[in-house]
Amino acid sequence: MDPYTKENYAALPELLLPWYRQNRRDLPWRRDREPYHVWVSEIMLQQTRVEAVIGYYNRFLQVLPDIRALAEADPEQLHKLWEGLGYYSRVRNLQKAAQQVMADHGGIFPNTHAAIRELAGVGPYTAGAIASICFELPKAAVDGNVLRILSRIMADERPIDKQSTKDAMAAALEEIYPIGSCGDFTQALMELGATVCTPRGPKCEACPARAVCRAYAQGRAGEFPVKSPKKDKRIEQKTVLILDCGGEIALCKRPDTGLLAGLWELPNVPGHLEAEAAMAEAARMGAEPDRPDWMVERSHIFTHIRWEMRAWRILCTRKAPELVWAGPEELREKYALPTAFRQFFDIGAEK
Ligand code: SF4
User: Fold this and answer.
1) Are strands 288-301 and 305-318 parallel, antiparallel or unpaired?
2) Are residues 285 and 218 in the same domain?
3) Phi/psi class of residue 309: alpha, beta or left (left: φ > 0; alpha: ψ in -120 to 50)?
4) Domain of 111?
5) Protein residue with its CA nearest to atom 8 in ligand 1
6) Is the same domain home to 136 and 22?
7) Domain contains 229
8) From CA 48, how far away is CA 58, in angstroms rounded?
9) Atom of ligand 1 nearest to the CA of 221
10) Is residue 228 part of a domain?
11) Does residue 189's CB lie within 6 angstroms of at least one atom of ligand 1?
12) Is 235 exposed, middle or buried (0-12, 13-18, 19+ CB in 10 A)?
């Protein structure tokens, strides 16, 4: 039997809307329904916690208050505004999409689901969120939070990472979108997933959807959602060189495609090198290494890859001309350095 019978879902809007209107958190992007604001917030919130996003969001809008400003921004400035948020392709796509809006829609954010979906970096979730919140269209925004809620409410055993499960849940949800309150319904589901029906330890006793929740009725909330077994991440070992010449640190730029495309990085080579080999690498890069100072090992996890990094701080007496050298203020203000590398400066401050 198709588990997506309407009965369990149909009561959700009337249960969730009053609860949401009373309990919603006051977040900066909820103060209006301006598509630019909702869009930027939704892109920032992908893979990132609300608390971490608020400061970035406020700063981003201060510097780039509208779509035109974003479309015309200097890519270096964009990377700097995004520094530390990770998944940098998000901000590059934001700008591409802003340029699309300027070129194809006269600078006005499109108001149909199909046109929103065509913007760079906008997948089904983001398109559903913007369409429902900004334009009151009955389009679901199905992310991990919503999948978790629905799989618990239906006690659905199908893995939520399967596209077929996502499609079935989105279609079932769209059938019950309450006309006139579509935006609030989308946000009510997001809010429930973030504050009540959380991944671990859902607060069922305080949940407005408890009366229709099968997992709760069966005492099995902790068993959902079901996920497919995880694939192992690929491990890459690297030696990172923190070349320090009179307080200036060497940087280089990553290639324009692939992981962390176009961002700045500390020079690095594959494998884990000992001190002598690390010094030889510094010399090969054109610097004049004097002595190794300290070494630490740290890892950084991306979606599919884990970097296991051994970082050598090497004091140099001559700068390599082919590398860019930056002092503390430039490192802070000018160059966008991914967290994978920036973590070594915190270590440097502790040493
Ligand atoms: S009753 Fe519990 S498991 Fe069911 S939706 Fe509410 S919080 Fe989630």
Assistant:
1) antiparallel
2) no
3) beta
4) 6-223
5) 197
6) yes
7) no
8) 15
9) 3
10) no
11) no
12) exposed
What is this structure's pTM? 0.79
Q: Look at the chain and report how many structural domains it folds into.
A: 2
Other C-beta atoms closer than 10 Å to the C-beta of 237 total 15
For residue 122, the CA-to-ligand 1 centroid distance in Å is 29
Residue at which a domain ends, from 155, 189, 223:
223
Q: Which of 183, 204, 223 is the last residue of a domain?
A: 223
Same domain, residue pair 51 and 134:
yes
Per-residue pLDDT of the chain (351 residues; tens, 9 = 90+): 345 556 778 899 999 999 999 999 999 999 999 999 999 999 999 888 899 999 999 999 999 999 999 999 999 999 999 998 988 889 999 999 999 999 999 999 999 999 999 999 999 999 999 999 999 999 999 999 999 999 999 999 999 999 999 999 999 999 999 999 999 999 999 999 999 999 999 999 999 999 999 999 999 999 999 998 887 889 999 999 999 999 999 999 998 888 888 899 999 999 999 999 999 999 999 999 999 999 999 999 988 899 999 999 999 999 999 999 999 999 988 898 898 998 888 765 555
- Tell me whether residue 1 is in a domain: no
Residue 30 is part of a domain; what is its CATH number? 1.10.340.30
CB count within 10 Å of CB 114 equals: 9
The residues annotated as belonging to the active site are: 42
